[in-house]
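User: Sequence in, structure out. Go.
Assistant: Echoing your sequence, followed by the structure tokens.
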Amino acid sequence: MLDKIKLSIWDILTFFTTGTILIGNILLYFPELFSHELEKLSLIKSDVILLVVFIIISYLVGILFEPICNKFFWLINKIIEPKSIKSLQQESNLLEATVKSMIEEKFNFKNAPLDYFQIARLNAIQNGKPNNFMAFLTKYGFYRSITIILLINAITLNIYKIYHCDYNLLVFFYTIALLIVFYLCFVRAKEFYFYSGNEIFRNYILNN
């Protein structure tokens, strides 16, 4: 029960953080787009109500951004292949091949077009086997979102500064810093992605 509460809080914080950063970027670079809405919010005198409205809006923006973020993340994944996660990927391929062989032998399947990961995942859920799959998956989602936000921030910053003829060395070095952190978060997201999948495959192998 406590683990589920922790995961729910982590999910909420992930969406809220993502939404807050996105809103901050939009207001920083394109304040004129939402000047009318900001004027309406300024009429609210209660700080508590303003805080609640901000939290709700940030959370909803984070939720709406999540599928977009997922699509862009896997497009980037086709371009960038960190060598540091090669061992995790190889382990994943080996575990998946083992699970596939076990399922085919158990149910007499031969090269069937099945999603063996989903079969293994459902098996773990039905048997109530404790594992860290959801914890890893939640952290993967967090780092994936931060990865895309950092890339968007770096691109938007440069376009904004070039458009306003205000590009300088400080902007250049700040962009380099953003891209370094972007890469580190991308690698971390990929690590948690493989951690989550490998956890499910190991669970199936050890309990079947």
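User: And one key feature?
Assistant: Residues 169-206 form the longest helix (38 residues).
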